[in-house]
Automatic annotation (TrEMBL):
<dbReference type="InterPro" id="IPR010879">
    <property type="entry name" value="DUF1508"/>
</dbReference>
<protein>
    <submittedName>
        <fullName>DUF1508 domain-containing protein</fullName>
    </submittedName>
</protein>
<dbReference type="InterPro" id="IPR036913">
    <property type="entry name" value="YegP-like_sf"/>
</dbReference>
<dbReference type="Pfam" id="PF07411">
    <property type="entry name" value="DUF1508"/>
</dbReference>
<dbReference type="InterPro" id="IPR051141">
    <property type="entry name" value="UPF0339_domain"/>
</dbReference>
<feature type="domain" description="DUF1508">
    <location>
        <begin position="15"/>
        <end position="55"/>
    </location>
</feature>
Length: 79
């Protein structure tokens, strides 16, 4: 089952969307949009770009003591 986008009103003023994982966990929330059509365009942009987006790690290096053995992040692949 794929995740889903939910389009909603933020306090009745702005439009926003959130991306939810199949288990219902919110994985992303959009910026505020002034109108519904712009929010829908934002959803289309995320759909187009998210699957091919590269990962840029901007985190500072962690001290050796704090680093746990983890699998490396997968490399980006062209689709």
């Amino acid at each position: 089952m794929a995740g889903k986008f939910e389009l909603f009103r933020d306090g009745g003023v702005s439009f926003r969307f959130r991306l939810k994982a199949p288990n219902g966990t919110v994985v992303a929330v959009s910026k505020q949009y002034s109108d519904k059509a712009s929010a829908v365009e934002g959803i289309h942009a995320v759909r187009e770009c998210a699957g091919t987006g590269l990962i840029t790690d901007l985190c500072p290096p962690m001290p050796r003591k704090a680093v746990k053995k983890q699998a490396p992040l997968p490399a980006a692949t062209a689709v």
